[in-house]
Design brief:
Layout lengths: L4 E6 L4 H10 L3 E7 L3 H11 L3 E3 L13 E4 L6 H10 L3 E4 L7 H14 L3 E3 L7 H11 L6 E9 L24 H4 L3 H16 L5 E9 L4 H7 L8 E8 L4 E7 L7 E8 L2 E4 L4 E4 L7 E4 L11 H10 L9 H20 L3 E2 L3
Parallel strand pairs: 1-2, 1-4, 2-3, 4-5, 5-6, 7-10
Antiparallel strand pairs: 7-11, 8-9, 8-15, 9-10, 11-12, 12-13, 13-14
Helix pairs in contact: 3-4, 4-10, 7-10
Bound molecules: nicotinamide-adenine-dinucleotide.
The site of nicotinamide-adenine-dinucleotide has 24 residues, from loops.
Length: 351
């Protein structure tokens, strides 16, 4: 049996799911849990068998034999904590969005290269069985040329702080609605998932320009009543142009007078699909329309971001799903969406 991989998790909101997946991965030891909220860190350390509890993440760097950290704390801490961890020789799994700016994300990738350690971003939507199955179809060329995509994640009532229970498992901090601490609102919280999944299922085309708009209309009075400053988007829509005219449109909302909706649709010359419910549309012969509900064979059952991260550490040659380097493209598009919405016109993607 190989030596166990020693990991620590920073953050007990979303981080609690990281802990669960780590301890369920063979030969991985959760050695420490870190959170400013000591009581919660102690609770999860007990639940998942970690010996150490710390409230200052810098104490983790002193733990002998620690191999990796998983970072699930507010967005503005992603870049500084990732860079420090890499400088201390640790592999890093960092939650989405990668950072609050493209420049920070670039520094994270440089730090990983310099340290020779693996950096992965928690793009969890890619790990759903249907996402993995559809990505396989795209890689095998079964869609022909992919020329268009559209995706949506509309929440009727899903504003962090307001609609998420304070005692719940995530979405609790008021940092979510601060541009400085979150980077953006719905765009950086769920837009990052929708754009990333769409882009990855399109086969990673090179983005060149974005035209976008953002809105904040429905919760202003409620935030004022609670004395919380909200200066981020609650809804963003964006048209992204890629090389060779390939195009994608996505829109996301935390709150809207609309029904809840989540989908990604990919349009190819030979076939198209939608992710929810997993369906493939084709016309093998002119006029012969086939609509196939996809039986998602769980070939990759059990694959999750934490297990994949561990496998990539154990095998440094293993291609990583959602590496820091790859996710720079996503950050570049989010950065362009934010700039376009602020400027009121189309902008180039800085890559
Ligand atoms: N991949 C996904 O699907 C997914 C889902 C939810 C959240 N996330 C991401 O995970 C991150 C955390 O989100 P959340 O919903 O858990 O937020 P949250 O506000 O509910 O919890 C954040 C936790 O971080 C702790 N914290 C804050 N500053 C800290 C510090 N300096 N040191 C140690 N702990 C600190 C807080 O005490 C809190 O327990 C965000 O970046 C979010 O985007 C990803």
């Amino acid at each position: 049996m190989a030596t166990p991989l020693n990991v620590a998790v920073i953050g007990t909101g979303m981080g609690r799911y990281h802990m669960k997946e780590f301890v369920e991965t063979p030969n991985v030891k959760l050695v420490a849990v870190c959170d400013l909220n000591r009581a919660e860190a102690e609770h999860f350390a007990r639940e998942y068998g970690a010996e150490r509890v710390v409230t200052d993440y810098r104490e983790l760097w002193q733990i002998p034999g620690l191999d990796a950290v998983s970072i699930a704390i507010p967005n503005y801490l992603h870049a500084p904590v990732t860079i420090e961890a890499l400088e201390h020789g640790l592999h890093v799994l960092c939650e989405k969005p990668m950072a609050t700016s493209l420049e920070e994300a670039q520094r994270m990738v440089q730090a990983a290269e310099k340290a020779g350690k693996r950096l992965m971003i928690g793009m969890s939507q890619r790990f759903r069985p249907q996402s993995l199955a559809f990505r396989g179809m795209v890689e095998r060329g079964e869609l022909g040329e992919i020329y268009y995509a559209r995706s949506s994640w509309i929440r009727r009532r899903g504003m962090p702080v307001i609609h998420f229970a304070p005692g719940g498992s995530m979405g609790r901090g008021s940092w979510f609605v601060s541009r400085e601490r979150a980077g953006a609102g719905a765009l950086f919280d769920i837009g990052v998932h929708m754009f990333d999944l769409t882009w990855w299922l399109m086969g990673n085309p090179k983005p060149v320009a974005v035209s976008a708009n953002s809105f904040r209309n429905l919760c202003n009075a409620e935030f004022e009543r609670r004395g919380i400053v909200c200066d981020v988007d609650e809804l963003t829509s964006a048209l992204v142009r890629f090389e060779n005219g390939v195009t994608a449109f996505f829109d996301v909302s935390w709150v809207a007078h609309q029904k809840d909706e989540m989908n990604v649709r990919i349009f190819g010359t030979q076939a198209g699909f939608e992710v929810y419910p997993p369906t493939i549309y084709r016309e093998p012969h002119w006029g012969e329309l086939h609509t196939d509900t996809v039986e998602i064979k769980l070939v990759e059952e059990g694959l999750n971001p934490r297990r994949h991260f561990v496998e990539c550490i154990r095998d440094p040659e293993k291609p990583m799903i959602a590496s820091g380097q790859e996710c720079l493209n996503v950050m570049a598009v989010l950065d362009a969406v934010r700039r376009s919405a602020e400027a009121g016109h189309e902008v180039a993607v800085n890559l």
